[in-house]
Every structure is written in C-alpha cells, then in structure tokens.
Amino acid sequence: MAGSINDNLPSADASIGVVKGAAKTASRPMADLEGVGTMVTVVSARTRAELQAIRTLVREFADWATGTIMPDAIEPPPVLAKLGEELANLPRKYTDPDGALFLASVDG
C-alpha cells in the first residue's frame, strides 16, 4: 500500500525472528477513529531511555498476559522464566546487523 506507515519500517523474517532493513526513525500521520490526525513515530531504540521504555512495556505486557491467561498462577509461565535476564541484557542480540528494537510513540 503506497504511502502507508509501513513504508519505512523493516521487514521481519518470522521464522528466525530477525528484523532486516532497519530504519533509524519513521514518522507518519495516521487518522484515528474520530478523524483527527495522529502522529506515530517509530525509532530504532538505542538510548538508555528508549531501552528502559522497552523494558517497561515488555514487563507490563508480560504481567497483563500472565494475569489474563493464568490468573491463578503462583509463578510466571516457563516462557517468561528468563524475561528479567533478557531485559537486563538489552539490546545485546537485538542490534545490527542481525536485529533491531523499535519503539513507537503516538504524538510524541
């Protein structure tokens, strides 16, 4: 689709989880449900603040998913067992040339 927000975003090879063709920043206006323009900015996360924002978002998602899928669980599911270690080591394996981390924000 010409002119879509995806024009400057990388392609993803889901079979190996690698992001290729990473742009540093992509901004595109998007129409929201009420017809008012919304600016979405996507950056390649590199700064401490951007990496901390990713850690926070992933932890919040993991907490939500665990509470939704396993509301009575005492411990997190095994798939999340090493999440803290993974987040502490960002961006290690998610950097060029084999990967990237992207952070999107709406209206700044």
Could you give a quick summary of the protein structure above?
The chain is of the alpha+beta class and 108 residues long. The protein is 26% helix and 24% strand.
Rg of Cα set: 16 Å
Major beta sheet, specifics? Answer: 3 strands, antiparallel
Low-confidence stretches: 1-23
Mean pLDDT: 73
Number of domains: 2
Distance between the termini: 25 Å
Oligomer: single chain
Strand content: 15-25%
Write the element-wise H/E pattern from the N-terminal end onward. EEEEHHE
Structure description:
26% of the residues lie in helices and 24% in strands. By secondary structure, the chain is an alpha+beta fold. It is flat, with a radius of gyration of 16 Å. The N terminus is likely disordered. A three-stranded antiparallel beta sheet has the order 3-4-5.
Give me the secondary-structure topology.
Blueprint: E1 11-13, E2 18-20, E3 25-31, E4 37-44, H1 48-69, H2 83-88, E5 102-106
Looking at this protein, list some descriptive labels.
disordered N terminus; 2 domains; two-stranded antiparallel ribbon; 108 residues; alpha+beta; 2 helices; three-stranded antiparallel β-sheet
